[in-house]
Amino acid sequence: MNSSGNSLVVVPRGCSLVQRQYYSSWSRVSPISTANEPFLSTLRKKGGKNAKPSKDAEEEEAPQELDLEKPKADMEAVVQELKEQLSIYKIGRADTQLLETVHVVQNKKSVPISSVAQLNVKDGSTLAVTVFDPKLQKDVSNAIRDADLDFEPTISGNLILVAIPKPTKKFKSKIIKKAAEQTEKARVQIRNIRRVTVDAMKQLKYTKDESIALDKQIQKLHDEAIKKLEAILKQIQ
C-alpha cells in the first residue's frame, strides 16, 4: 500500500501489454464502479451507508469483483468491426476498401496503398487510383496486380483504373479466402479478451465454486461471440 492509501498491484512477468494495462488499473480502488477499471467493480463494506467505519475499516481496501460487462462489450465491438469489414465484399461491386489489403514498397518499406495514393470509385465496377508521386505509379499498379485479388489494373494518364471482376467462381473463391483470414483474426481477438478476463478473475479472491461459475460465464460470452463471427462469414460464403 502506498502513501496515499491505495493498494499496489504487482504485475506478473510475461504479461502482454493489454494485460499490463488491465492490471495497472487495479492500483486505484474507489467505493463505486468506474469505467476506467476494466473487468472490476467495487462493493461497499457491510453495515449500510449509515454505519460508522472503524479506523481499521477505513484503511481496509474495498473488496473487488469481476465485471463481465467490459469483456462482453469488447467482444461485441470485435463482432461489429468484422461485420463492417466483410460488408465490402459485395461480389462484382466496386468499393475502395477492396484495396485496403494492398501494400506498396516505398523507400524499402512496405506501406498501405492508402498512404501513397487516393482511392475513388469511378463507377459501379471500376476503381480509380491517383498516386501522389508519379514515380510510384507503376509500382502501385504492380502491387494491385500482385495482391492475389484477380485485379487487372491499367494506367490511364495520371490514373490507375481497376476493373472489379464479375462474380466468377475463381474471384469469389479469393474473396472468401480474404474474408476467412479476417474472421480468423477476429477469433484471435475474442480468445485474447477471454484470456485476459480469466487472468483478471484469478487475481481476485474467489472461492473454487465461484471461480468455476465465473469461468462458465466467461466461456459463454466467448462462445456466443464466436458464433456471431461464424454467422457473418457464412453470409459471404
Automatic annotation (TrEMBL):
Domain Ribosome recycling factor, chain residue ranges per copy: 82-235
Coiled-coil portions: none
Keyword Protein biosynthesis recorded: yes
Family to which this protein belongs: Belongs to the RRF family.
GO MF annotations in UniProt: ribosomal large subunit binding
Descriptive protein name: Ribosome recycling factor domain-containing protein
Region ranges (Disordered): 43-71
Domain of life: Eukaryota
Cleavable signal peptide: none
Keywords from the named record: Protein biosynthesis
Residue stretches of biased makeup (Acidic residues): 57-66
UniProt cross-references to InterPro entries, sorted A to Z: Ribosome_recyc_fac, Ribosome_recyc_fac_dom, RRF_sf
Organism from which the protein derives: Arcella intermedia
Entry's Gene Ontology cellular component terms: mitochondrion
A single GO BP: translation
Transmembrane segments: none
Pfam family for this entry, one: RRF
